Amino acid sequence: MKHPLSKHKAYLFYLLVWFAITIAHIGVTHLYFGHSLLASSFDALTFNIIIALLGYAFGYAFYYLSADAESINSLVSYLALILVGVASAYFFSDLLLRKIMVNDASFLTFSMETRLWRISAATFYFTAILIAYYFIQYNHDLRNRRNNETRLEALLKETELDALKSQINPHFIFNSLNSISSLTITNPEKAQEMVIKLSDFLRYSLGNGKNEFSSLKEELNNISLYLEIEKVRFGNRLNIKSSINDDAAKAKLPNMILQPLFENAIKYGLYESLDDVQISTTAAIKNDSLLITLSNSFDPSSAVKKGKGIGLKNIRERLHIYYDSTQLLKTEVLSDRFIATLEIPQKTTSK
Amino acid sequence: MIKALIIDDEPLARDVIKSYLNHHNDIEVLAECENGFEGVKAINELQPDLIFLDIQMPKISGFEMLELLDKHPHIIFSTAFDNYALKAFEANAADYLLKPYSKERFNEAITKVKQKIEGNVSKTTYKVVTDHQDSIDKIDRIVVKFGNKINIIGLDTIRFIQAQDDYVEIHTNEGKFLKQITMKYLEGHLPTDKFVRTHRSFIANIDYIDKIEMYEKESYLLHLKEGQTISVSRSGYSRLKEVLSF
């Protein structure tokens, strides 16, 4: 349970305020109304200490009444607190004064005559205390929420990107390792070559998290490693064509963003088809944007399992995070070809 | 002599098996197959005792291939997927090898198969097990054999499915197909937002529904686009109501 005044020794300030109010109370009663110093002190102490203690106790209630619950309920609760506070302050101080001041008739009359004043004062004090609590709590919540929000946003972006990037298919890795295992028996040199390719591919794919952007050339180099590995696995069934402009090769794009497109091309083109598969890539700069087109053949008769579209969804989400647009990836299915077109704006990637 | 077949779409994966088998003079590889179609054909023609079977292959998976067989050889699965072990067990596989595997692990599998062969453990036919409804993914296509031809039926071409004793009759845009499978299995594995069990003997694809008509008290008829009519029971009607939200 956290009291609103527990921070920064705020209770000291609270004590000080009440000390000042009590002194003022004594001063007014003694000097202005002419009651004895003793009577004035008793009066001020009983009345103000009760209110100060109750007011402090009310702070705990704020643990349950959230400051941002701007409902009629919390307003009613505040009013109830004030009412309870005022009633108890008034009756208890009155009771005590009657016990202590039995001999001072003029003071008792005075206290009767100022009844309305006392009630007003108590109401004012409690209201002021509750408002103060409200603002302290509200501020606190607000700051907390803002901190949380910024932290959450940063965290989210980080994990999101991590998750989106690390989508390398484990079966690809295990099947490649199996191919290597096979080659170690029949063709150790080729096995070594493939181990090196697989290592280079994994190093780039897994380790490139620090750079969020790479040049198209770097990306395509990595992808060609991937495709060469698949070529070893599936032999001559895979044909690769590409035509990349020099400008385009230098252009930047979020790293590993193309990988899922090639994985899909391999998955639907190669894994699910009995025939040869063509994958062709073109890239060019147009209107300050890098345009990449990837097209692969597939077998339309295989009633291919449609997959969950995680690859394409990931690309869209990453592009959305970086470029704030959902229109950068377009896909098109022709009778026996799948075409994906990716547009990467070049101005904003200069960071 | 044990007659074996290797069914795997990757040449290098087949090479591993062949080379591990060099040390087993009592096992003869009759043929290698690159996919399930070749597999079905080769199994029916050559009647092997044992098959080494990959799961992910073009066109039809290893499991789908098994569904098309009348008689089963002993099976050793050889795959990079570790999430089909339960299903492989249900298929009564002798062993389940995770790629890449060692020669020792391979020999273990061979020992298990030999025990099965010598102990004359019956090669029970592969039946799709209906109990573990949650353990197996939803299906997104159905593979059937029609004469010598294998058809892959995409779910969106299925109009409705009708129970026929031990079989189901799958009515598609391309015609009717029989398959040995239970209605209960299909009900549990077809996507529930598209396929509704309207009756003990019928499952309908909601995309082909034309109208629903009251037949007599608490019994309805479902008219499909282009003519056919199928029965709807009371519980089937409430399931339709839920899916179509009317």
Describe the structure.
The complex is a heterodimer of chains A (351) and B (246). Chain A has helices spanning 10-32, 37-61, 72-100, 105-113, 115-165, 170-186, 188-207, 216-234, 246-250, 259-271, 310-323; strands at 213-215, 238-244, 252-254, 277-286, 289-297, 329-333, 337-345. Chain A is an alpha+beta fold. Chain A has two domains: 4-157, no CATH class; 166-350, 2-Layer Sandwich (Heat Shock Protein 90). In chain A, the strands form two sheets. Chain A has a five-stranded mixed β-sheet. Chain A has a two-stranded antiparallel ribbon with strand order 1-3. In chain A, helix 3 runs antiparallel to helix 5 (115-165) and helix 5 packs across helix 11. The radius of gyration of chain A is 38 Å and the shape is rod-shaped. The two termini of chain A are 46 Å apart. Chain B has a five-stranded parallel β-sheet, with helices on both faces. In chain B, strands 10-9-8-12-11 form a five-stranded antiparallel β-sheet. Chain B has two domains: 2-118, Response regulator (Rossmann fold, 3-Layer(aba) Sandwich), CATH 3.40.50.2300; 141-244, LytTr DNA-binding domain (OB fold (Dihydrolipoamide Acetyltransferase, E2P)), CATH 2.40.50. Helices cover 28% and strands 34% of the residues of chain B. Chain B is elongated, with a radius of gyration of 21 Å. The A-B interface holds A 170-171, 174-175, 177-183, 185-186, 232-235, 271-274, 299, 301-303, 305-306 and B 9-13, 15-16, 19, 34-35, 37, 56, 58-59, 80-81, 98-100, 140-141, 152-154.
In short:
The complex is a heterodimer of chains A (351) and B (246). Chain A is α+β, with helices and mostly antiparallel strands.
Shape of chain A: rod-shaped
Order of helices and strands of chain B: EHEHEHEHEHEEEEEHEEEEEH
The CATH homologous superfamily name of the largest domain in chain B equals: Response regulator
Q: What order do the strands of the largest sheet of chain A run in, or round the barrel if closed? A: 2-4-5-7-6
State the CATH topology of the largest domain in chain A.
Answer: Heat Shock Protein 90
**Broad structural category of chain B:** alpha/beta
Broad shape of chain B: elongated
**Number of strand elements of chain B:** 15
Helix content of chain B: 25-40%
Which percent band covers the strand fraction of chain A?
Answer: 5-15%
CATH architectural group of the largest domain in chain A:
2-Layer Sandwich
Largest sheet of chain B: 5 strands, parallel
Amount of beta strand of chain B = 25-35%
State the oligomer.
Answer: heterodimer
- Unreliable sequence segments of chain B: 129-135
Count of helical regions of chain A: 11
**Helix content bin of chain A:** 55-70%
Separation, N- and C-terminal Cα atoms of chain B: 64 Å
Number of helices of chain B: 7
Roughly what is the average pLDDT of chain B, rounded to an integer?
A: 87
Structural class of chain A: alpha+beta
